[in-house]
Amino acid sequence: MTDFRAGFVTFVGRPNVGKSTLTNALVGEKIAITSSKPQTTRRAIRGVVHREHGQLVIVDTPGVHRPRTLLGQRLNDLVETTLAEVDVIGFCVPAGDDIGPGDRFINDWIERAPKAKKIAIVTKCETVPKPRVAEQLIALQELRDWDALIPVSSVESINLEPLIDEILQLMPESEALYPQDMVTEERYAQRVSELIREAALEGVHDELPHSIAVVIDDIIDGEEGKDIYADIVVERDSQKGIIIGKGASRLKNVRRFAARQISNISDEPVTLHLHVKVAKDWQRDPKQLGRLGF
Ligand SMILES: Nc1nc2c(ncn2[C@@H]2O[C@H](COP(=O)(O)OP(=O)(O)OP(=O)(O)O)[C@@H](O)[C@H]2O)c(=O)[nH]1
């Protein structure tokens, strides 16, 4: 096949700029979890966008930030490993935010991938008036000579196909890297655990979101469907109480919400069994981090 292009792209940017939402919107299926809490993303998750003339493999990275814990440090390492392997880096900045020191830090940082093509993406562009989008594009142009510059909205599906086209044009000529029917190579258990974590994050505040991890204990295929056993892990007893809620009301909601999401990605009925466990200060403990898969 001539003129078919394929390669890897990653979106970088401060936490909460909309990288995961953009990945999901481009792939057209829920791959990465999203939330209004910063630093939701903890794994390099791949989604694959298939088009007649090419294929994009999206690697989702955690938000870049100043590491305060061992977990933070490992997340930054993960971003760096990802950067070294991609063909295109998409630098994301929301239309409504001024470009600040955090953005400049990331802009300098992507220099560490000299071979990657670099594009700037203005996200959430439906949230501001058009002149503001134009201003943001100009501000970005002052940062560097981008290979492409494009405003998008994941929520209102603005410019998503043009973005895919722009990125594909920057990819090397190559055969398809993944089979046509594959949208993610994330293992089922990993996707399940992320969906549970997303449900558990709903409505929690302050430090608690960063303290929540989910471990899948077992997935048992029975005649009536799957039984999934999972632990929601927190760092302190007080957090355990918050997650469970009065008369276990909150935990029941988490289970109901997660089960519905998991059903959407499963081909048979699912029964979800959740337990809440305390692993004291797991974010700072190398052994616990290993056990939780970081
Ligand atoms: N209005 C609007 N909100 C958006 C858009 N894209 C993302 N958001 C919201 O912005 C918030 C953060 O989105 P995420 O996709 O989780 O951001 P992220 O950059 O992946 O965040 P981290 O995982 O923390 O790095 C969520 O509340 C999204 O719903 C958009 O196009 N328009």
Could you give the topology of this structure?
Layout: E1 5-12, H1 19-27, E2 45-51, E3 54-60, H2 70-83, E4 88-94, H3 101-109, E5 117-123, H4 130-141, E6 148-151, H5 160-170, H6 188-201, H7 208-211, E7 213-222, E8 225-234, H8 237-244, H9 249-264, E9 270-278, H10 286-291
Parallel strand pairs: 1-3, 1-4, 4-5, 5-6, 8-9
Antiparallel strand pairs: 2-3, 7-8
Helix pairs in contact: 6-9
The protein binds guanosine-5'-triphosphate (GTP).
Guanosine-5'-triphosphate binds near residues 19 and 153.
Verbal overview:
The protein is of the alpha/beta class and 294 residues long. The protein has a six-stranded mixed β-sheet with strand order 2-3-1-4-5-6, sandwiched between helices. Strands 7-8-9 form a three-stranded mixed β-sheet. A hairpin with a 2-residue loop joins strand 2 and strand 3. The longest helix has 16 residues. Belongs to the TRAFAC class TrmE-Era-EngA-EngB-Septin-like GTPase superfamily. Era GTPase family. Keywords: Cell membrane, Cytoplasm, GTP-binding, Membrane, Nucleotide-binding, Ribosome biogenesis, RNA-binding, rRNA-binding. It is a peripheral membrane protein.
